[in-house]
Amino acid sequence: MINADMMSPPPAPREQVIAHIDMDAFFASIEVLDDPLLKGKPVIVGGGLKRGVVSAAGYEARKFGIHSAMPIFEAKRRCPQGIFLPVRMKRYKEISLAVMACLRKFSPLVEPVSVDEAYIDLTGTGLIFGKEEEAARKIKKEVSEKTSLTCSIGVSTCKFIAKIASDLNKPDGLTIIPPEQVRKFLDTLSIKKVPGIGNKTGEQLVKMGILYLGDVNQYPPDRFYKKFGKPGIRLVEFANGIDKSRVVPRSSPKSISSENTLPEDTDDVNILKKYLIEQ
Fold it and tell me: pLDDT at residue 137 above 90?
């Protein structure tokens, strides 16, 4: 016989706890770590001075408006006193491996996004490492002790909110958006800060009167699907705090890229063929 007590509803699903770890000015910080005399100076890591681009800029250099992907000549113009250094990817990857090893001490679910950032699923680890803030501070301490570098961490209920949060208080920041604050956070989040919203899409949304992510809910969802396709559906989900993506420790590469900046512009087919074959 089945009684009423045996038919009690299953427990509610556990709220996810997702953290996004973003190393602070990673390439530039490593250069300062390896050469302490660079501390306090505008360090800029990038390619050749004539045609290369900035790979990373320290915070002192960012004060001059320098950012990644900026042409080196423009960075040189804005900050002639800058310390321009070549990319040392082997060294950066070495430190990156150490950072990821630190994260795996807190959860087996660590998803590296690039050499300087990763997601970590902390769901269910509260009894071991404490609640969100305590766990995040332990992660920051572990990374600092093992690498002598700082990182910024965002913690929330899903990946996209955690990523946005990690960028709010850089450098060496910690931002937690708990479940009860998610709605308020999203309603006042600039639409241009939403991952995947480029300049063109952002301009279209602003023309629709959507300045904040919460404004999306003023329109029927199918309007965004008709205008933007699948990204429109994702936008509606984001506006409601929904991110179905999970932290995946290992995944197949989604793309492979290779690039080379030529010293000078050329339309010489033989030269271009040479570079294409190298790629």
Answer: yes
User: What is the chain's alpha carbon radius of gyration, rounded to the nearest angstrom?
Assistant: 22
SS3 per residue for the chain: CCCHHHHCCCCCCCCCCEEEEEECCHHHHHHHHHCHHHCCCCEEEECCCCCCEEEEECHHHHCCCCCCCCEHHHHHHHCCCCEEECCCHHHHHHHHHHHHHHHCCCCCCEEEEECCEEEEECCCCHHHHCCHHHHHHHHHHHHHHHHCCCEEEEEECCHHHHHHHHCCCCCCCEEECCHHHHHHHHHCCEHHHCCCCCHHHHHHHHHCCCCEHHHHHHCCHHHHHHHHCHHHHHHHHHHCCCCCCCCCCCCCCCCCCCCCCCCCCCCCHHHHHHHHHHC
Paired tokens of 84: 């321009």
Residue 20, φ and ψ in degrees, nearest 5:
-115, 120
Catalytic positions, please? Answer: 117
Q: What is the pLDDT of residues 160-197, one digit of tens each?
A: 999 999 999 999 999 999 999 999 999 999 998 888 88
CA distances from 59 to 13, 39, 56, 84, 95 (A): 41, 11, 10, 14, 19
At 66-114, the pLDDT tens digits run 999 899 999 999 999 999 999 999 999 999 999 999 999 999 999 999 9
Count the neighbouring beta carbons within 10 Å of the beta carbon of residue 84.
19
Q: Which residue shows structure tokens 């030269």?
A: 271
Exposure b/e, 20-38, CB count within 10 A at least 16 = b: bbbbbbbbbbbbbeeeeeb
What pTM does this model have?
Answer: 0.82
pLDDT category of residue 151 using cuts at 50, 70 and 90: very high
Alpha-carbon distance 271 to 262, whole Å?
A: 10
